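I had to read the description of the data format several times before I understood it. The format is easy to grasp once an entry is in front of the reader. For illustration, here is how one protein appears when written out as sequence plus structure tokens:
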Amino acid sequence: MSLPATHELHIFGKINGHEYDMRGKGTGNPNDGYEDLDLKSTKDDLPFSPWILVQNIGYGFNQYLPYPDGAMSPFQAAMCDGSGYEVHREMEFEDGATVTGIYRYTYEGSHIKGEFQVDGTGFPDDGPVMTDSLTDLDWVVTKMVYPDEKTVFSTSDQTYTTTSGKGYKSTVRTNNIFAKPIAADMMQSQPVFVSRK
């Protein structure tokens, strides 16, 4: 298989019990890490801020993530050899709310199909998520390490901007679980730091 060029996404779940379902398609460049996505709700308007899903949507396709010196990332290697990987993500917010996500991928040549279930609970009714007061997600640096030959674990602290100008903070922990062992030379190059917007 080849490196990614296009992708489609089905993301669904519940936020504070409100069901949502969205589908879309996009393109990307694995050489510079760029990706875009045109995503639309298959149901009514979202009863919460769509920004709460941005971290899951925008950072869900690590197959586009380039590694230093042109090295193939473990995410790209898992796509190219067809073995794949699965993502388990947890986000904890400053007000006690949580979001959990499970991402699964299938591949057709250079095309990625993502199936993401993302659920959130505990968001206060008068908080920035349920009042649709989030306006942006700030730049973030993610630290990636390889605790074993089939796992990439990443952590980051993220801040959303709100309409009031205040920040809304979260801590994100992600386990990327691979079907085949990660290349030994890749495991020597850790930690890896990724800057994203």
Remarks:
- The mean pLDDT is 92.
- The two ends are 28 Å apart (CA to CA).
- The domain at 6-196 is CATH 2.40.155.10 (Green Fluorescent Protein).
- The chain is about 10% helix and 50% strand.
